[in-house]
Amino acid sequence: MANKVWSIPFRFPGITHVRCMFTTRVGGHSTGRFWGANLSFGVGDEMDAVNRNRQEVLKEIGCPFFAEVEQVHGDRMIFVEEGSHVPSLEKADALATGLWNVPLLIKVADCQPVLVSDVQARAIAAFHVGWRANRGGFLQKWIREFCEHYNLTPEELMVVRGPSLGPAHCEFINFATEWGEGFDAYYDPSSQNVNLWQLTRDQLIEAKIPQEHIFSLDLCTYSCDFHFFSYRRDHLTGRQGGIIWKRDEDKG
Asked: What pLDDT digit, counting tens, does each position of 15-35 carry?
């Protein structure tokens, strides 16, 4: 059990066949600055350690591979379709699929992993929401694209935000120039911190997600140093994952 990757499971109420998981840094095979369960190949960790960490997670969820992207803080969304190649080299920050047993992986170390399912489990999505995505309204854009692609309405969706940088540690010393107008309500001038948790919730409501369909794990990656990687805290560090997949026991 020493190398088991410890994670936080989440289930949407009433959605039987959708699983969510937020991994922690606890467990795994990485050492040094990346100690624990780093899931990213792109931060300087040993490739073999990352592979072994990923295999620990895949073994636990019972799937052979992750669908993922090269995250670039942009607004592009990838749809993983039947017969398509897993888009591991595509530059994007959002993924969606209607396929069974294809786990969507978002890698984070302070950014918000946002996972989505419709209430009938026809399709799922995973979003990498950094502050630039909040500022640019990418979250609302991805919700629109997801609904259009799968013929859904926002009222049918449920959303969960995983552990990420909390309001007490989200400092922006150049708030006025980096954010621009329209975000003052989320900014505390005395501490120079931005409440990204509240901003994301409000943007989901703006996208017409019912408030009772919005869930969150209010765990700060910066503050919980034993449990999570944090770029703001450590700079050179690993990445944990937000993972969602459609799991039908009859399909294996």
From this structure: 999 999 999 999 999 999 999
Residue 130 falls within a domain, yes or no?
A: yes
Is the separation of the CB atoms in 164 and 195 below 8 Å? no
Express each pLDDT in 84-107 by its tens digit.
Answer: 555 457 899 999 999 999 999 999
Give residues with Cβ within 8 angstroms of 102, minimum separation 6. Answer: 63, 67, 80, 86, 245, 246
Q: Tell me, what CATH number does 116's domain have?
A: 3.60.140.10
Q: Is residue 90 part of a domain?
A: yes
Q: Would residue 2 count as lying in a domain?
A: no
Q: Residue 46 sits in which domain range? A: 7-251
- Reply yes or no on whether the pLDDT at 248 is more than 90: no
Question: Is residue 124's pLDDT more than 60?
Answer: yes
User: How many Cα atoms within 13 Å fall on the side-chain side of residue 42?
Assistant: 12
- Please report whether residue 229 resides in a domain: yes
User: Residue 223 and residue 197: Cα distance in Å, rounded?
Assistant: 15
Tally the domains of the chain: 1
For residue 172, which amino acid is it?
F
